[in-house]
Write a structure and sequence with these properties.
The structure is a single chain. 13% of the residues lie in helices and 50% in strands. By secondary structure, the protein is mainly beta. The chain has one domain.
Length: 156
């Protein structure tokens, strides 16, 4: 019996360590998710803007994943929209920065272009303080900053 006990303990430890190693890449990953209504930091400009997104950091055995949807309606009622696949994600504290490549758009010139998105979760929904920023990788203006005025975003 004394010889069997160390073998059982060793087997249990081996099984436990194997299970932990196997599940290490399957735990939760950091991510940013949300569906928000936006307004330029300078105040209303007669346009409606909506964004929805889910951006998940990469697991050790895979790539980042997610989608970014953008819709803007100008003062005349014309709608501009696109959908991008998330290709890069970095999450730190209450901020996430992710990149997406546009796959679907009603503006063919946007298809294939990369857009960087930064979201900041500063407050509870509806209390103000959350931000969403956009930056195309093509030459152009710096980050465009929007206040979240409706909906919710979560960085976790």
């Amino acid at each position: 019996m004394k010889k069997v006990f160390p073998i059982v303990v060793a087997a249990v430890l081996l099984i436990g360590i194997t299970a932990l190693a196997y599940s290490a890449g399957k735990g939760p990953v950091r991510k940013a998710t949300g569906g928000v209504e936006l307004e330029p930091v300078g105040g209303p400009d007669g346009q409606s803007r909506y964004a929805s997104f889910n951006a998940h950091e990469a697991r050790p055995s895979g790539a980042p994943k997610g989608k970014f949807h953008w819709k803007r309606q100008d003062a005349t009622g014309q709608v501009f929209h696109f959908v991008g696949d998330v290709v890069e994600v970095a999450v730190s504290s209450n901020m996430a920065v992710f990149a997406c490549v546009v796959k679907v758009s009603n503006n063919p010139a946007q298809i294939g272009k990369k857009l960087y998105v930064c979201v900041v979760d500063n407050a509870t929904p509806g209390s103000g303080g959350d931000l969403l920023m956009l930056k195309w990788t093509t030459p152009g203006p710096p980050w465009t900053v929007f206040n979240v005025i409706g909906g919710n975003l979560v960085v976790h």
